[in-house]
Amino acid sequence: MAIFSVYVVNKAGGLIYQLDNQSPRSESEKTFSFPLDLVLKVHDERVIVSFGQRDGIKVGHAVLSINGIDVNGRYTADGKEILEYLGNPSNYPLSIRFGRPRLTSNEKLMLASMFHSLFAIGSQLSPEPGSSGIEMLETDTFKLHCFQTLTGIKFMVLSDPRQAGIDTLLRKIYELYSDYALKNPFYSLEMPIRCELFDQNLRSALEVSEKAGTFGPSS
After folding, report:
1. What secondary structure, in 3-state letters, does the chain show?
2. Which of 134, 185, 190, 195 could make an S-S bridge to 10, C-beta 3.0–4.6 Å?
3. Pick among 2.30.42.40, 1.10.287.3510, 3.40.190.10, 1.10.150.20: CATH of 27-99
4. Which of 77, 74, 80, 87 is nearest to 47 (CA)?
């Protein structure tokens, strides 16, 4: 079982906390000789596969690392422009790791805001007043669970569809937020959460939840 990530969204729809716990990305690393038998292009400041598939590498997959050096957008971590580097025969043979593109910070902010809007739409579509809004979205690869407090803060967890005990985990996260963020004299309400104790205890809670499937009475 796995819990992939945690999001905390304030009542205005702003992302104030996000943690990637596990990533289910499918990644493939292969050694290539020149010329590269895949067609690459820059899309949304990432280098992605636009044509050609092989050995688990698919169209839309992004370049994640070259020769073990991580990639940041169009450049490697040591400053090389990726397409220019891959176009130079003297750099071959080389190893490239491909996989689903990682979400950028801006994309996470945008997606949190979009879910906030969907949550409001879900409440308005309800045939009965006082709807709780969207509590769960389910796909074949993950479930998104949401718990909204009375003050409008939303706690969201993305998990494996088979993971049990998420409702209890959401309330545990709310408890940690109350204990380590709200009681922190340096924390301002509705602002990004930067609290080491909150981070540490949240990671511990996720680990317990993944192993046990739920929380016992003593958690």
Report:
1. CCEEEEEEECCCCCEEEEEECCCCCCEEEEEECCCCCCEEEEECCEEEEEECCECCECCCCEEEEECCEEEECCEECCCCEHHHHHCCHHHCCEEEEEECCCCCHHHHHHHHHHHHHHHHHHHHHCCCCCCCCCCEEECCCCEEEEEECCCCCEEEEEECCCCCCHHHHHHHHHHHHHHHHHCCCCCCCCCCCCCHHHHHHHHHHHHHHHHHCCCCCCC
2. 190
3. 2.30.42.40
4. 74
- Over residues 28-65, the pLDDT tens digits come to 889 999 999 999 999 888 899 999 888 888 888 999 99
In Å, what is the CA distance from 179 to each residue of 108, 174, 175?
Answer: 25, 9, 6
Residues constituting the chain: 219
Query: Residue 160 is which amino acid?
Result: D
CA dist 150 and 134 (Å) reads 15
Q: For 147-182, write each residue's pLDDT tens digit.
A: 999 999 999 999 988 888 999 999 999 999 999 999
Q: What six digits make up the tokens of 188?
A: 């301002």
Query: For 3-23+104-212, which CATH class?
Result: alpha beta
The burial of 218, by beta-carbon neighbours within 10 Å (0-12 exposed, 13-18 middle, 19 or more buried), is given as exposed
